[in-house]
Design goal:
Layout: H1 2-12, E1 14-18, E2 32-37, E3 42-44, E4 51-54, E5 63-68, E6 71-83, E7 87-91, E8 94-97, E9 100-101, E10 125-129, E11 134-138, H2 148-151, E12 154-155, E13 159-171, E14 176-177
Length: 187
């Protein structure tokens, strides 16, 4: 009975994930273990992505886990920047949503030069309109994130849920627990 309950909880309510890369620094660190609310965007039929009971969709600013569009067996975590109908543009590393500059106190830039539009979409991108039933996502570590700027939009049916808390954090470089990160609510 306990196994059935655990499987039910994992399939419909909450799932644990480990952060493998620095693309969401400083919000999430390599070695953070997070919980993702799978229920917040509606009840989905396991293994199908079909929403049985819809509640709401991802909103701008939500940190979401989703199936990577180019490799669906792989899960990615990024921040939602644009929702259906939004116009996204990046000019000299500044993000604009519907022609308004996005205030992004969570974003970090570690590379201080701008790469030309012809060479890479990282620093100059768009404008593009987010299609219906899709979101545009970016990592908080803007200069070191493989995200919608490179591979396009995320279909809402591939969104697994919203990250909401760090329940464990292991610093592999210093072989120790990051006690100050445990219990941190994500926003």
């Amino acid at each position: 009975m306990a196994i059935i309950l655990a499987l039910f909880i994992r399939a419909f309510i909450v799932q644990a994930f480990k952060i493998p890369s620095g693309s969401m620094k400083n919000t999430l660190q390599i070695g953070d273990h997070i919980l993702v609310n799978k229920f917040i965007y509606g009840v989905k039929l396991p293994f199908t992505g079909i929403t049985i009971i819809p509640y709401k969709t991802a909103q701008r600013g939500d940190i979401v886990v989703f199936k990577f569009p180019q490799e669906p067996k792989k899960d990615f975590i990024k921040r939602t920047i644009g929702i259906s109908g939004d116009v996204i543009e990046i000019r000299n590393k500044k993000v604009y949503v519907n022609k308004k500059r996005l205030e992004q106190d969570y974003a970090i830039y570690t590379d201080f030069h701008i790469i030309s539009k012809a060479m890479q979409p990282r620093d100059n991108f768009g404008p593009v309109t987010v299609p219906e039933n899709s979101i545009f996502v970016m990592g908080d570590n803007r200069d070191h994130s493989y995200d919608s700027r490179f591979w396009g939009f995320v279909d809402l049916k591939n969104v697994k849920g919203k990250a909401f808390i760090i329940y464990w954090s292991w610093d592999n470089d210093n072989f120790g627990v990051r006690w100050g990160r445990i219990g941190k609510m994500l926003k």
